[in-house]
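Notes from hallway chat w/ T.B., transcribed later so I don't forget. T.B. wanted the structure written out for a chain they're using in a teaching module, and asked if we could keep both sequence and structure tokens in one place. Agreed to drop them here.
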Amino acid sequence: MNILVIGEVENLEECKTRFGDSHTYMFETDHREAERFIETNDLVFDFIIDEEPFQIDIYKNKSNGIVFFNAAKISLAELSNLAEHSIKADVYGFNGLPTFVSQEILEVSLLKPEHEDQLKEICAKLDIHYLIVDDRVGLVTPRVVCMIINEAYYTVQDGTASREDIDKAMKLGTNYPYGPFEWCSLIGIKHVYELLEALYEDTHDERYKICSLLKKEYLLQS
């Protein structure tokens, strides 16, 4: 398959590692440069549409192609609305946060239920396992992981435990592959902060209210 990856070099490398070298890859870091290639590739993986949702315009009225949008911080429904519901390509959401594409199961959301059979065929060609989740901000795994990271920051802020002890306790006690602070480092505090911010804006649920220590560290790294 011919696959267009829009994002960072790390995104391209993660796709190559996950999907294998039997496919042909094209890579662009800029949406406007990528626009002319959308209909000439079998698949498009757009990792940065959540950072630049206004660039959804490049997908308007393009009838060919299959597009996977990084929908961790923004839902497919919202992207479709921003495009005035004029995206004619078949679109899916996926968890495109750093390290998650490499996981055993790829989380995917649907804009249209009738696309489920096509999704099955695509994932078979990519030789990956997938799980269909609701089209909502945070999907499932990003929402849970980032909430745990936020709670870990509250624990450190309150002086209850050190970062090292929290990471060790979570790995030994819950058999998680990483501790919360290790996970935050792998995902990137920018993505963690922005996902929690999007979740809180979407739900106004106090569980996603960002810890002030996490916010401070995010601001210092921005």
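Follow-up for T.B.: The longest strand covers residues 105-110. Might be a good example for the class.
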